[in-house]
Amino acid sequence: MNQRHRVLLAPDPRLLLELFPDSLCTKIAQAGLCFVIDDDGTISDSHSMYISWLARKLHRPLRPEDNKRYNFSDVHPQALGMLKAAVFGSPRMHIDLPVIPGAVAALQEIHEKKIAIVILTARPPQDGMVRATRRHKENRRIPFDIMIFSRRKKEIIKEIRKISRQVVVVDDDPSVITSVFRLTGVMAILFGAPYNEHIKRDGLIRVNRNGGQTAWEEVLSIVRRKIINGRS
Questions:
Q1: What is each CA distance from 50 to 86, 117, 150, 220, in whole angstroms?
Q2: Which of 171, 176, 184, 232 is most buried, by the most CB atoms less than 10 A from its CB?
Q3: CB atoms inside a 10 Å sphere around CB 127
Q4: Is there a catalytic annotation at residue 202?
Q5: Interval 43-80: pLDDT, tens
């Protein structure tokens, strides 16, 4: 795919499919499946960086397990705003982030099966952040068909569903997953973390590290069993 088609910055969801290149629409329609994946906390292991930055800012020790809310409100009432202003305002901090164990192998397998991969991130759609995010994925050989920077995730997922029999969504943000997991034709997977353990919904799929198995291996197991093998 032409590089200029690989990133969409805060698109209007109503125009999303018009912005997709024809080759991507065809790929999604032929597979009958699209894989929509968040970045931070799902591909990029950024949470530890956020906690470390907040610890320095607040002048007190913090551990990842101290944060039990996705918005960091249990750490500091203005924590999320502080992070947005400082960490998201420093794109270079995201270029060398470690990758969640198992993510590269899982996404490469999904890509090899000719399933479209959409990285849907709520990171700010600024030039520096876009370049850092794309460079991070390319440096680590993480495949994707298109990358979308937007906070309007539910609306975007609903639009993608119009051209795909099934959409698999993987995200660690509980508000995203709980907003889409009951949509027809959407398989929503909550990527387990200390800050979303309190989310309980009947029928909600959650993946966690289980013994020697990574959460990404569990995602792959679900995809193979329910989608690729035609038993969804």
A1: 10, 26, 20, 28
A2: 171
A3: 9
A4: no
A5: 999 999 999 999 999 999 999 888 999 999 999 999 99
For residue 39, what are the contacts with CB-CB under 8 A and spacing of at least 6?
Answer: 119, 121, 123, 133
**154 Rama sector, left if φ>0, alpha if ψ -120 to 50, beta otherwise:** alpha
Task: Give residues with Cβ within 8 angstroms of 19, minimum separation 6.
Answer: 8, 11
> Does the annotation mark 40 as catalytic?
yes
Q: What pLDDT, in 10s, does the model give residues 106-133?
A: 999 999 999 999 999 999 999 999 999 9
Domains of the chain in start order, with CATH, are 3-45+98-228 (3.40.50.1000), 47-94 (no CATH)
DSSP structure class, residue 172: S
Six-digit token string for 128 = 């520096």
Residues comprising the chain, all counted: 232
DSSP one-letter code for 106: H
Sign of the dihedral through C-alpha 207, 13, 89, 139: positive
Coil, helix or strand for 23?
helix
> Would you state the pLDDT for residue 69?
93
Q: What is the pLDDT of residue 1?
A: 38
What are the residues whose beta carbons fall under 8 Å from the beta carbon of 6, sequence distance 6 or more?
134, 144, 145, 146, 147
Task: Annotate 139-165 with b (16+ C-beta within 10 A) or e (fewer).
Answer: ebebebbbbbbbbbbbebbbbbbebbe
- Cα separation, 232 vs 218, in Å, equals 16
Q: Angle CA(20)–CA(23)–CA(27) in degrees, nearest 5?
A: 100
Q: How far apart are CA 95 and CA 69, in angstroms?
A: 25
